[in-house]
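Retro notes (design track)

What went well: tokenization of the new backbones is finally stable.
What didn't: we kept losing track of which sequence belonged to which structure.
Fix going forward: every design gets posted as structure first, then sequence, in one message. First example under the new rule, 229 residues:
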């Protein structure tokens, strides 16, 4: 797929043209566009209409200060215990291989070899800069939520990603921030009873960046869907 910032015009188009963008242009998103996306995303479904997402959106100087602090913490060797583990451990097949291949494909594109552990680690730190996106989002939820509400927050997250595509924007969902909640609580007005669940970079994709040429594999539909009649 050739990555483009052209707006998606159908849901199919939005899904097919959405990828996790890990290199953004230094171009602000108009506040009105951002507000429109966040307003429409409120239409996301949730069990019992609980709407369990709490959304913290940073731009401009606020985002710059947040990133600066996060980077300083990282450089000082700080890292939080994650609010939730990213994956089950140990991971089983085929998910284990899919995860492995994603990493190999991504690092292959940007030319960081497997034995260059430090290089890969350093590259991961792009997460802490929200991949240079002009918008950084942290989504929190009450610690008392149950699994179905995490699904609701996933649905909301997908709404943001698809609406962003309709506005000619791209996104990177970031579980990364579950490991960096100290900085989130320090800079944002997060209620005491909430925890960091996921973050997101949003902005205009740098369409020429090698890392943005990753169009991650998917299993064929027939492998995961069973039809009954
Ligand atoms: C909940 C969630 C958390 C993710 N966290 C990160 C992250 O912290 N850093 C990152 O680079 N990608 C992250 N990703 C992106 C996934 O690696 C990506 O969605 C997957 O490899 C499929 O690729 P695609 O989004 O380009 O289609 C996350 C995706 C999801 C849905």
């Amino acid at each position: 797929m050739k990555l483009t910032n052209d707006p998606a015009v159908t849901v199919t188009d939005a899904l097919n043209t959405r990828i996790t963008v890990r290199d953004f242009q230094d171009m602000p998103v108009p506040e009105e566009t951002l507000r429109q996306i966040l307003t429409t995303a409120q239409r996301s479904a949730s069990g019992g209409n609980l709407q369990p997402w709490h959304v913290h959106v940073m731009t401009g100087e606020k985002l710059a200060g947040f990133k600066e602090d996060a980077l300083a913490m990282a450089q000082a060797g700080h890292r939080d215990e994650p609010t939730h583990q990213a994956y089950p451990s140990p991971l089983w097949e085929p998910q284990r291989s899919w995860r492995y291949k994603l990493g190999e494909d991504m690092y292959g594109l940007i030319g960081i070899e497997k034995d260059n552990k430090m290089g890969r680690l350093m590259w991961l730190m792009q997460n802490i800069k929200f991949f240079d996106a002009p918008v950084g989002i942290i989504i929190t939820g009450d610690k008392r939520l149950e699994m179905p509400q995490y699904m609701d927050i996933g649905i909301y997250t997908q709404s943001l990603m698809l609406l962003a595509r309709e506005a000619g924007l791209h996104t990177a969902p970031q579980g990364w921030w579950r490991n960096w909640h100290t900085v989130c609580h320090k800079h944002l007005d997060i209620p005491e009873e909430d925890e960091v669940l996921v973050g997101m970079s949003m902005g205009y994709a740098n369409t020429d960046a090698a890392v943005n040429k990753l169009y991650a594999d998917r299993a064929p539909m027939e492998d995961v869907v069973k039809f009954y009649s």
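Added context from the reviewer: Residues 147-166 form the longest helix (20 residues).
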